[in-house]
Amino acid sequence: MPELLSDEEVRSQLPEGWERDADEITRTYGFEDYLSGISFVTQVGEVAEEEFHHPEIVVGYKEVEVRLTSHEEGGITEQDIRLANLFDAEY
């Protein structure tokens, strides 16, 4: 089971463009149009399924918000940071 990261570890490992929101890390990705955002959600979903770690995703007209946390551990772990980097690679 992954261990929670300390506040300093989260700060130092948080990928560019991501923010901390309490027990989660979040990023809002912008897109040219709605269907580009939907395509991104599909790619993120495939990565999440492969990693068996699933984010909360909110789809807007030209943006997609992704929120990551490790519910079982009660906060942010290396797995969340890893997925954030993988999602950024899809963007």
Automatic annotation (TrEMBL):
Entry annotated with the keyword Protease: no
Recorded superkingdom: Archaea
Reaction(s) the record says it catalyses: (4aS,6R)-4a-hydroxy-L-erythro-5,6,7,8-tetrahydrobiopterin = (6R)-L-erythro-6,7-dihydrobiopterin + H2O
EC numbers for this chain: 4.2.1.96
UniProtKB keywords: Lyase
GO biological process, alphabetically ordered: tetrahydrobiopterin biosynthetic process
Record-linked Pfam families: Pterin_4a
A GO MF label: 4-alpha-hydroxytetrahydrobiopterin dehydratase activity
Keyword Lyase: yes
Signal sequence residues: none
Family: Belongs to the pterin-4-alpha-carbinolamine dehydratase family.
Protein name: Putative pterin-4-alpha-carbinolamine dehydratase
Species in which this protein is naturally found: Halobellus salinus
